Sequence to fold (414 residues):
Amino acid sequence: MTGTREKILDAAERLFGKHGVAATSLRRVTSEAGVNLAAIHYHFGSKQDLLDQVILRKAGPMNERRLKLLEEFEAETAPVPVSVEKIVVAFVLPMLLMDKTPDFSRFLGRVHAEGLIPEIAQRNFQPMFDRFLEALHRALPEMSTGELAWKIHFAIGALAHSLTSRPHLAGGNEPDSPLAIATRLVAFLSNGFRAPVTLEREIEVNP
Amino acid sequence: MTGTREKILDAAERLFGKHGVAATSLRRVTSEAGVNLAAIHYHFGSKQDLLDQVILRKAGPMNERRLKLLEEFEAETAPVPVSVEKIVVAFVLPMLLMDKTPDFSRFLGRVHAEGLIPEIAQRNFQPMFDRFLEALHRALPEMSTGELAWKIHFAIGALAHSLTSRPHLAGGNEPDSPLAIATRLVAFLSNGFRAPVTLEREIEVNP
DNA sequence: GTCTATAGGGGGATAGAC
DNA sequence: GTCTATCCCCCTATAGAC
Fold:
């Protein structure tokens, strides 16, 4: 028997992820959760505070799993730096395989895509980001942290997008398990991270 | 002297891109455009129709530039297939360098991220997607179209995210011109597309 | 084509009984 | 802790004068 607070968090996570935060009303959340509208303000105070709590409830554990995976990989290969692939796996997998349902993953993808990561969550993610940046810099010492930061940015975009939707193109109709998607994504991103940046010779084109 | 209709489209493009579609009211649009609230309904009918028109106004020309670039590259190298890099350049550059301002690009990134691409735009993008899928398949014949469709999906996510925000991480504070971003992105994505997918040996991990 | 005025609904938030 | 009732604002959309 889960409490009211938990039911609200579950419903908010699901609806925010499915329709977006701005497009989801608190009335829909409480209706979906089967609780009274006022409960949301009693337990959280405001929509913004609810959003923060939905993030914080699972982001902490997720980031801990990321860091734990990374440290395990590092322990295995020390003193040799961990491979790019493994760093990407440690970053991507806990997000894609969180829980049995994809609710939280999709929710976080949405929040990222809508650019709403509040400062609260920012503070929660920053140490983890820094840690992965450092690991990447060890695996790819020839790249500046500025370049690597951009690549992480690209990777987050690809990850977030793959969490909220799937290709609406022609092609196979296989269901594509989360693990299969993760495998494709890891291969794609790892190779991306390894790409040399040739900034001195920029793209030449006449637009 | 631009007309009312044009002023509304410009303002909507800017605000939708900056704050998101759901979070932007028509009142803000008309206020920003310096026109009357009713004008928006006179010229477009509804918010959804306005959204469609904002997309359609520039998506057509943009996709034509994509296809034109691709065809030029193909003409240069025929009968050898075009390189992955050039295909990615043809796909990414017209989006990143559209207009002098990044308004439309950011808008499209948002719309993609919010998952709102309406069927109207879907029909507008589909032929272009198919054409690029085909070109990629020629450049990378060992990959199935299903795999390539997923990779395009990842690429769109990275592209959209890089259009709506930039890394909030430590590191350099250089302004990062659109062309510099494009160069990094092309390098990242091209290498990603070339990544072999080893689906038979999936990631092994105990979550 | 452009305005004012307003309908009509849904939104977040709160007060106060229980 | 949970409910009802309600405030008050902002929203989209429309009617109708000019």
In short: Residues 66 and 91 of chain A are 6 Å apart (CA to CA). Chain A has a mean pLDDT of 91. Residues 25-27, 37-38, 40-41, 45-47 of chain A lie near DNA strand C (CB under 10 Å from a C1').
